[in-house]
User: Fold this.
Amino acid sequence: MIYFNCDYNEGAHQNVLDAISNTNMVQSAGYGHDEYCEKARNLICDLCGNPELYVQFLVGGTQTNLTLIASALRPHQGVLCAELGHINVHETGAIEGCGHKVLALPSTDGKVTPDQVEEAYRLHVECDTPEHTVQPKMVYISNPTEVGTIYSKKELEDLSEVCKKNGLYLYIDGARLGYGLTAKGNDLDLPSIAKLCDAFYIGGTKIGALFGEAIVISNPALKEDFRYIIKQKGGLLAKGRLLGIQFYELLKDGLYFKISEHANAMAEKIKQALTKMGYDFLVDSPTNQLFVLMPDEKIEELSKKYSLSYDHRVDERTSCVRICTSWATKEENVDLLVQDIYKK
Amino acid sequence: MIYFNCDYNEGAHQNVLDAISNTNMVQSAGYGHDEYCEKARNLICDLCGNPELYVQFLVGGTQTNLTLIASALRPHQGVLCAELGHINVHETGAIEGCGHKVLALPSTDGKVTPDQVEEAYRLHVECDTPEHTVQPKMVYISNPTEVGTIYSKKELEDLSEVCKKNGLYLYIDGARLGYGLTAKGNDLDLPSIAKLCDAFYIGGTKIGALFGEAIVISNPALKEDFRYIIKQKGGLLAKGRLLGIQFYELLKDGLYFKISEHANAMAEKIKQALTKMGYDFLVDSPTNQLFVLMPDEKIEELSKKYSLSYDHRVDERTSCVRICTSWATKEENVDLLVQDIYKK
Amino acid sequence: MIYFNCDYNEGAHQNVLDAISNTNMVQSAGYGHDEYCEKARNLICDLCGNPELYVQFLVGGTQTNLTLIASALRPHQGVLCAELGHINVHETGAIEGCGHKVLALPSTDGKVTPDQVEEAYRLHVECDTPEHTVQPKMVYISNPTEVGTIYSKKELEDLSEVCKKNGLYLYIDGARLGYGLTAKGNDLDLPSIAKLCDAFYIGGTKIGALFGEAIVISNPALKEDFRYIIKQKGGLLAKGRLLGIQFYELLKDGLYFKISEHANAMAEKIKQALTKMGYDFLVDSPTNQLFVLMPDEKIEELSKKYSLSYDHRVDERTSCVRICTSWATKEENVDLLVQDIYKK
Amino acid sequence: MIYFNCDYNEGAHQNVLDAISNTNMVQSAGYGHDEYCEKARNLICDLCGNPELYVQFLVGGTQTNLTLIASALRPHQGVLCAELGHINVHETGAIEGCGHKVLALPSTDGKVTPDQVEEAYRLHVECDTPEHTVQPKMVYISNPTEVGTIYSKKELEDLSEVCKKNGLYLYIDGARLGYGLTAKGNDLDLPSIAKLCDAFYIGGTKIGALFGEAIVISNPALKEDFRYIIKQKGGLLAKGRLLGIQFYELLKDGLYFKISEHANAMAEKIKQALTKMGYDFLVDSPTNQLFVLMPDEKIEELSKKYSLSYDHRVDERTSCVRICTSWATKEENVDLLVQDIYKK
Assistant:
């Protein structure tokens, strides 16, 4: 069985693993108070072009999202988010578990628009009894989104502007940030992202690390006592250095972006085959996730050899499946899949 | 200014007030451990035709909803609810504040259908990773709904069946239950409601009481330690007898239903005038709340004399307003309003 | 049976009840947006000598405590409190239910000392890993305390100073505030209290009202969006005017203090009898609650005629019971009790 | 600087690291649905002598504690725990953050006694108004405790009995379980522990793993939907296999216990030196943590070369420090420390 069902089927990039091995018996302080984390934090500030950024490392995405949101919001405040947003549908109510409503906005491409945010905010403040409804205080977006699409710089600037204007925090879930920043057509980079939002995270779990997400906070209001919240929510890793070591290794020479590009290129190959065969896509994704509409028979046939990710039924004979590449995807496996896509 | 904006503009029915006055200096135990509450509990069991029902009294509706739901659900479980449901839009995230996601279902008439419940449940259990999503464990409905519509006995039976089949609790918010049970076309009554759901409440605040909601629990699993949850959530009234006295007075001779009928009749009068004038309604409501679509000019004119409740903009010239009668509505005021509706 | 077990056995003072009756059919806006609440809020500001105070009315004490604390603290912050504090032992974990640890301090007289606060704060900030422990951010005290003792002005000033110095909020639970402010030896008043703490509440439930607590917030940081939190926690009374009407009636001519004095005088009578009979007290209380150590036999005998409140076992033959008077206590009943105390 | 301040200063045992490396590019399912976790789960069941045990792997201790407790308790229920218990003092209120009160019991040796549990339970159920207080529903103990002491089999049996009798869950935090089970004087083993409690965890982070805790649940009531709670609380590791691989490696040939023994032996060497020098201990610990009372001067001197963990001030000239060995402690470093302890 060859896995194209997700982007966390393997361990870590060899360089990352070597870095962990090479430092294994060095003694260091716990909980991220070590020199590896310090170096990784400084490196991220450099890459983002802002020495004032506050950087912490957590283990996983849901943990990162819930920690940041729990830290930022007061009890009556909620977070605007696309219907398809990870926090809305794939975290078992982690945000509600911290007491906050996720205010879902309709979206077919996984994105939130400035108009939606403006309208949601306006409806809240203009209603007769705002205090009877949840106060929108944050906008959560994913880049790339859960369906593989990316935000343009202009789109992010506009979102950022409407958030600032209305006193809303803008938070970006970057579980697959590398895949987004190296996608065809992307015009965003780390400095622009760090500037336009209040907080975001650089995902490691899905791009070369054993595990780990680097959260980057630019808004001073969100930095205060943040480590208390990490600890309370169970996210403070005892051997925090493991996170610092990995992120330093991934980011020091651009490895993170190189392996992201690889995943996108592999997805592009598959996409071209699917396109040639006339299959439609849920949306046009330039990143490592493809959501393709296929006849059930074809899906069944491919599933004998490949693990794909079933998404949803489209009609009686057609379903949407997700095909996913990653930093670890072998081109030989892609070629096999492409051949089988072409097979009639 | 004459108020038609909601159904809690006045104090209490005179009989209720008299009952409070007449018992004022009697000493009794606190927190509902008094004879008045005991009598009211027994009366409610009688009216529902089931001596095993567990009855407690709370002060308000949001409090009742959050207490019951917090008591019934485990952290990962959520509650299915119509988009327009009170817990979804008008309780400032009270349910999320207790850690639970409200799983909103599209609805134009304020109702939830058995098919929607079946589908939501099926999608959850059939997905590859149910544990990554909130587990539906309860269905919340309001009867009458937030837009004034009512469930038929057949509709409730079908909902009840699909809930039982799938292990979901069915909970009915009866903030306006009296208005529903006395509406034209209603075929539900207290015994059928008590039998078909796991818990419901009989609303007092909006029907003749100073305040108070009587929660009725039939499912034994939901009775255990319920009073601890009331206390923890801040809902245990020290002078609990005030609730027992009021509900006993309202229910002992059918006063609750008589004054509900009055409100419906008053609404019907207004509805006929609006219909004659050709105005459309959001939905066809047989109860005390009318959601009517009116030209903004007409709304403005009426608003000089009457307090109405603005609901939402329909188009550039038209808005939806709620007109509300209650147990306390004076017919002379209704007649004035009717005249002014007819006025061109 | 004559009740001396608590101070909420009766309804309301007759004037309060009359005020509710007299306004019963007046139509007004809901949720505290009415003229009665407005008048009561202004009156309380006047009595406290500060027009900038923010006043809201809630139904009960646990509700008030949890709402204020949930509104003020971030997730990792806790509240310092005497071991005997109501939030620590008699609210079914309402504060923890909102996510916050109650940091209990040893106390035999129910009070918290400035030294305890200073020490708790110092231990937190000086420890190597403060983020692994709950951050003290508020001091909760009750005045009178749960065992009837009161704070002197000097004591409150000192507490206030240590709180300000360390960035801690000072919050006073005034469930029985009237009994405290009219106690023998008291030198506090509303203006000094309002000045020395960040928030406090004037208890109505136990002093003449059917129900109700008036929360008074002086710290601007605690005012923001407070009504959202009230609503979310289920504490926003639909017919909010009931609270305004009651507090206005109680406070407009000093009725609140007059009836408080009565309760204290009644307690004093009982205390003298107990003292003459040689019984010891848990602490020396100048207010309406007496905690007396009595032989079990004597308690059993008195309990045939009087409802007392059992507190705890002292030794094999002795227990501590609470004897409680209130605004409603009849002197004839006190005289009967006194006679029976003297009886051998 | 040589670290004796804690037991998580290094990475992982070389065998564990090798196992991770050797499987690095194998593709597997995510979230613990892989063959490595399956093997590790089966192995743990075997070692505990019960194939019905439910085993899940989490990343860290606080996360494990909060997940298990949040899953087991209803909102009004609390957990009994020694004052020194990790959940009471070193998890930033993680349990309260999930809504539950930690009911602290006085303890100087870090243990909870059956009498304390019995008494706490009795006081709750016998009080007049149990629903006004938190319901004790679980007993949390650590073995070894936070001060290094261990429970005997008899002590655990007695605790288990009192818990069963009163319907309380018994949960054991085994962050350092290996150090306890290999300590001098220990008569507990995995099968007896699995039998006597409802849930416990085998700590990996502090004993040879990069990270990881294996939670073992024997009570069927605590198994239901447990993975939902893990996900909601942010503890479901995407590459869950990393946990299975590590625990399998540690447990398959007894490595876990061998390296635990080493740590205890190293601590014993240090303990003998400290004893010879006449230093007192906070408690007598047979495990890898020593809490020794030393003159501040001596501490200062040692701290130039060794990182120790300051615990608390004893008197003007003396403090208590924790000296900690681990699976990774080098004997040569212990010998250096011993020499320096003897130095005058």
Q: What stands out?
A: Chain A touches chain C at residues 31, 70-71, 74-76, 98-99, 129-132, 135, 225, 227-232, 236 (CB under 8 Å).
